[in-house]
Amino acid sequence: MSTPQSGIFALGTASHTYLEFDLRPGSDGGDLIGEVASLREPRTTMGGVNLVVGFRPELWRAVAPDQADPAVVGFNAPIDGVEGFSMPATQHDVVVWLSGSSYDVIFETAKAVIAALDRQATIVDETASWPYRHDRDLTGFIDGTENPTLVDAPDIALYPEGSPCAGGSVLLLQKWVHDSAAWDALPEAGQEAIMGRTKPASIELEDKSPHSHVGATDQDRLGKIFRRNMPYGTVTSHGTMFVGFSAEQRRLSAMLDSMVGLTDGARDELTRYTRALTGAYYFVPSATSLRRYSRETTDK
Question: Residue 61 pLDDT > 80, yes or no?
């Protein structure tokens, strides 16, 4: 049986960092995967750190073709929608997502990860994030209302047993910056109409627009995903790290197509107040698959 990377489901952590790397010119993708696979997750303690790693799908497939889904591809081109709205493609080769109880522990672990991968890869993007008012994003609305429970999440996020990718997942990682001044200037009823939910209790509006955020990202229509979104940034520049896992890439890509208006010609109303700065897909292999490539295993 394949064991997934446990950090995918480690809810309740108070500090997060997302590190994205590119392979150095002349370096070997297999060596990089070996270095990443050899990273050691600290023992789970009060100050412990959860570690999740993923790879550009084409890189993973080149090194581990028998454990890859040929249908999964990187975020290799921008998604151009209606009214000139576009989501950028900023695909990198590796992502390391660290989460834990406090930022000092995350900081030290991130330094160690960057140093461990330095011979093979260059750090190209780093974003720190943290929970806001327990489970709200920086619009003030509850984020992840439709998220599955931890009982159901593995069936939605992970490739099933019997698949070459068993225990793995497809990760969509995007950084969205909010136009907070414009958003905060709206009355609460206007914000609720754009979201398609009430603000205090996150109750779905019966008369919501199909182009509200809830309507445009309707999981009953597009397919279920498991989200681990987090706020990021400073008081003057901030937004949401979208962290979405699925056993099928098409669910994630269908959601993005709907948001930019490629599905029905109208974009998600929330995109008038937030825009994507980055966009990447990563294949997150099972912990079982990763052990196959760790130096400890290959050196035996």
Answer: yes
Q: What share of the chain is helix, strand, coil (3-state, %, to 5)?
A: 30, 25, 45
Residue whose token pair is 């790290």 = 241
Which residues, including other chains, have CB under 8 Å from residue 28's CB and lie 6 or more apart?
Answer: 120
How many CB atoms lie under 10 A from the CB of residue 216?
26
Could you tell me if 273 and 194 are in contact, meaning their C-beta atoms sit under 8 angstroms apart? yes
CA gap 22, 37 in Å, rounded = 16
Closest CA to 211 of 188, 186, 193, 233: 193
Closest CA to 263 of 81, 87, 83, 89: 81
Which residues are tagged catalytic?
143
| Residue 137 in tokens | 């994003």
Q: What percent of the chain has pLDDT over 70?
A: 96
Average the pLDDT over 36-49 and give the result.
70
- The answer to whether residues 99 and 230 touch, using CB atoms and an 8 Å cutoff, is no
Tell me the backbone φ, ψ of residue 126, rounded to 5 degrees: -140, 125
Give per-residue pLDDT as tens, 5-24.
Answer: 999 999 999 999 999 999 99
Cα(189)–Cα(207) distance, integer angstroms? 13
pLDDT confidence of 295, banded at 50, 70, 90?
A: confident
Q: How many Cα atoms sit within 13 Å of 90 on the Cβ side?
A: 16
Phi and psi torsions of 193, nearest 5°? -65, -40
